[in-house]
Each structure stands twice: as C-alpha cells, then as structure tokens.
C-alpha cells in the first residue's frame, strides 16, 4: 500500500506547485488591474476637477482685486462724512465678498487659502488703522489716508495675488 501512495504523492507535487504558481499570477494580475482602474479613475477625476480648480483661483484673484484698498475706496464712495460708518461699510463689503467666495477654499491649497485670509484681514486692519488715526475727522480724509498708506506700503492683496499666480503656474 505504501508503494502505491508514493507515485501518487510524486504526481501531486507538480500539480500543487502549478496550482500555487497559477494562484500567485492570478492574484498579481488582479492587483495590477485594480491599480490600473484606480489610476484611470483618478485621471478622469483630475480632468473634471482641473477646470474647477482654475475657476476657483480666478474667483479668488477677482476677490483680491475687488478688496484691494485702492479699488475698494474708489468703488465704494462714502455716503456721508462719518468715518465710522464708512469704515463699517468697507469692512462689511470685504466680509460679504469673502463669504460669497468661501466655498472656493476646497479647490485651493491650504497655503494659498491662508494667504488670502491674511490679505483680507490685513486690508480690514489697514482700514481700521486709518479710521483710528487722530488726524482723520471725515470719511474723505480717511480715504486719503488709506490711499497714502497704499502708495507707501502697497496693497496686502498683492502678496496673495502673487501666491495665486505661483500656485496656478504649478498646475501647468
């Protein structure tokens, strides 16, 4: 009986090895196919997301242009002579513009988004500093102080615009 089992075992060893090799290559093939499908899906998602990302950068560039102090005070003329109400008008306009574009952050890099927030806050701070200036007694004088500071120091939004341009150039 032992003699009959040995040829059977010897004939089963190659079959078992071939089965193991076949399972290994099948598993390798299915893993490669899964990676290929994921890559193609990722590539397709990138094709669809790219225009949205570009549009988000465009919208934030427009936002930064609109809140640039020079353009903002030119576009938003004071209603009266009260500098506090003019300060409030300018700050509220900036906040409304920002809230309107808040969803764009999901398409921007974290560094770019943080730079945009810093530019917004620095612009509001510039307006508040001009309002608190003791020599400013009217809204028109406040506009002059803002424009003078803008000429001397530049717009806070310029740094954020440069960051946007840098990020967009990295996309291409």
> Would you tell me the overall average pLDDT?
87
Radius of gyration: 32 Å
Q: How many distinct folded domains?
A: 1
The stretches of 5 or more residues where confidence is low (pLDDT under 50) are: none
Note the overall shape.
rod-shaped
What percent of residues adopt helix (DSSP H or I)? over 70%
Q: Give me the number of helical elements.
A: 6
Strand content: under 5%
Number of DSSP-assigned strands? 0
Q: In whole angstroms, how far apart are the ends?
A: 75 Å
Q: H/E order of the elements?
A: HHHHHH
Structural class: mainly alpha
The major sheet is characterized as: none
Structure write-up:
This protein has helices at 2-67, 69-75, 83-100, 110-132, 139-153, 157-171. The chain is built from six helices and no strands. With 172 residues, it is mainly alpha-helical. Helix 3 packs antiparallel against helix 4 (110-132) and helix 4 packs across helix 5. The radius of gyration is 32 Å and the shape is rod-shaped. The chain is 84% helix and 0% strand. The model has no long low-confidence stretch (mean pLDDT 87). The protein has one domain (51-171).
How are the secondary structure elements laid out?
Blueprint: H1 2-67, H2 69-75, H3 83-100, H4 110-132, H5 139-153, H6 157-171
Which short descriptors sum up this protein?
single chain, 172 residues, rod-shaped, mainly alpha
What's the gist of this structure?
The chain has 6 helices and no strands.
């Amino acid at each position: 009986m032992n003699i009959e089992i040995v040829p059977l075992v010897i004939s089963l060893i190659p079959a078992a090895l071939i089965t193991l090799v076949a399972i290994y290559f099948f598993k390798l093939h299915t893993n490669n196919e899964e990676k290929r499908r994921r890559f193609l899906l990722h590539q397709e998602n990138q094709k669809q997301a790219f225009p949205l990302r570009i549009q988000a950068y465009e919208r934030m560039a427009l936002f930064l242009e609109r809140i640039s102090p020079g353009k903002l005070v030119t576009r938003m003329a004071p209603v009266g002579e009260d500098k506090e109400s003019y300060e409030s008008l300018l700050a509220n306009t900036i906040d409304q513009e920002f809230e309107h574009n808040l969803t764009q952050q999901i398409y921007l890099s974290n560094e770019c988004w943080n730079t945009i927030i810093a530019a917004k806050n620095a612009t509001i701070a510039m307006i508040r500093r001009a309002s608190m200036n003791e020599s400013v007694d009217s809204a028109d004088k406040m506009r002059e102080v803002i424009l003078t500071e803008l000429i001397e120091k530049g717009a806070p939004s310029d740094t954020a615009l440069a960051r946007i341009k840098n990020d967009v150039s990295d996309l291409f």
